[in-house]
């Protein structure tokens, strides 16, 4: 099986499509987060933009609370509280942030990968297309895909700017000559280029090459933290790999759907972004084999060993 570990860490993967309850839940969360991201800059509270981080003029509006440069300690307290909440959530529920709320996951999964699938087809069609270059269908599909990517990137970039310059100035800049607001225009171009490079090309490779959070999780998580795990006691030995037979049929479906190309059967790994694709894929296979679901599931390492759960620990 061709995985990210078998090739360069920057190898471009084409994960297979997956259906299931966790996939539906994640996309429901993604839809809500996308709507919040796009609509929030235009929401007004007492006549002021609900969330505005105007660094240039040192003015910050946070849901009705107006802060200025001398209020920096309050803003720091707010950011520190958010950071602590993330650490606390990780200690309890593992990389729930990565799987459900990280912008990298939301934009790539809900937007860019959907566009790619709509234009180039399923993962098998994308793999076949990747093997052909400079042919008519390759040029057409790649051109359409990157045109759509650019349109989406422009929308995301303008929405991002709205949080820092305000919707009123952004609206004026969009309707005026770029020379009149050349700094905003340059910022928009750079942000759009970053969005394309990150969400359209780098994708999940950023998660295990540049993002520091994957490294932090090894400190924040312990045996009682929730994670996506493979029940080796039930699954091993895999079919065709030894005497007897566990429930794992060695179909490698969990690897095929993984956006980072790992094998969850090797244990909890830094590259796992908790996207739950392997859970839905394995459950689908278990349903076809009339076996109980949960060979791959949310659990703790302690739970797999039969230990009692400890949701709150002194650490």
Report on the structure:
With 315 residues, the chain is mostly helical. It contains 14 helices and 7 strands. It has helices spanning 21-39, 72-93, 96-100, 103-120, 123-130, 136-165, 167-175, 182-202, 205-209, 213-220, 232-235, 253-256, 277-288, 301-304; strands at 44-45, 48-49, 51-54, 59-62, 65-68, 227-230, 296-299. The strands form 3 sheets. It has a 3-stranded antiparallel beta sheet. The protein has a two-stranded antiparallel ribbon with strand order 1-2. A two-stranded antiparallel sheet has the order 6-7. Helix 1 (21-39) packs across helix 4, helix 4 (103-120) packs antiparallel against helix 6 (136-165) and helix 6 crosses helix 7 (167-175). The longest helix is centred in the middle third of the chain and has 30 residues, at 136-165.
Q: Percentage of helical residues? A: 40-55%
Biggest beta sheet summary: 3 strands, antiparallel
User: What is the succession of H and E elements?
Assistant: HEEEEEHHHHHHHHHEHHHEH
Mean pLDDT: 90
- Give the overall shape: flat
Q: What is the percentage of strand-forming residues?
A: 5-15%
The low-pLDDT segments are 1-7
What order do the strands of the largest sheet run in, or round the barrel if closed?
3-4-5
Backbone CA Rg? 23 Å
Distance between termini? Answer: 39 Å
- Secondary structure: number of strands: 7
Helix count, DSSP H or I runs of 4 or more residues:
14
The secondary-structure class comes to mainly alpha
Mind sketching the topology for me?
Elements: H1 21-39, E1 44-45, E2 48-49, E3 51-54, E4 59-62, E5 65-68, H2 72-93, H3 96-100, H4 103-120, H5 123-130, H6 136-165, H7 167-175, H8 182-202, H9 205-209, H10 213-220, E6 227-230, H11 232-235, H12 253-256, H13 277-288, E7 296-299, H14 301-304
Antiparallel strand pairs: 1-2, 3-4, 4-5, 6-7
